[in-house]
Amino acid sequence: MNCIIIDDDKASSQVIYEYVKKTTSLTLVGSYHNPVEARNVFTKRNDIDLIFLDINMPEMDGFEFMKSLDNLPHIIVITGDGTYAARAFDFNVVDFLVKPITYARFCKSVDKTMRYQSKKDNSAQAEKEIFIKKGTSLVKLKIKDIIFIEALENYVTLNTNDDRFVIHFTMKGMEEYLPQGLFLRVHRSYIVNKANILAISEGQLDISVGGQSKSIPIGKSFKDSFLNDISVMSR
Length: 235
Description:
Elements: E1 2-6, H1 10-21, E2 27-32, H2 35-42, E3 50-54, H3 62-67, E4 74-79, H4 85-89, E5 95-98, H5 103-126, E6 129-134, E7 137-142, E8 148-152, E9 155-159, E10 164-167, H6 171-177, E11 183-187, E12 190-193, E13 197-201, E14 204-209, E15 212-217, H7 220-229
């Protein structure tokens, strides 16, 4: 994830700089002490995913900086004044860090940002459209409309609520292609769309297809990873 630092406090900026450098999920694009300079750079690029932003700065404070941008990336606010927290979250910032910032607290904010980004990426990919050959025609299909995928010898079937497409593809290839936040491999022969799971019982799950319930087996070797990927609430 590409990031920049905007903080006129050089000592604080250096701390964040060192934290970013030892965090493998982050790539530092630039560090700025002047928010106006940072804004001029940011508006010319489209590859910055995260900004570590100070609030108290001369010429343009952090709130003014955020207001000046049409498309905000993920923002983690860094400040020495905790009273700004409520106002900061009005801008949908990911997190609010009060100086002095420990590396452990920094990592927690970065992990939270990565989860937000993953959900954003999955949502965007789910809206993607692909064209599937059916007979002599090409049919447009949204990724999110696929309910489950089933292995069929050297082919796979993509099943929607009202159609079924057979394509020459592997299950491993489908597993790598589909957004992991939406689709789960539950069996050697099945991948399912999580949004359509109705119930889970011992060794199988029920999924909604065309208004009806279909049972799909859960393979023993996939059970643990499947249960880890879904949210389970117990009494």
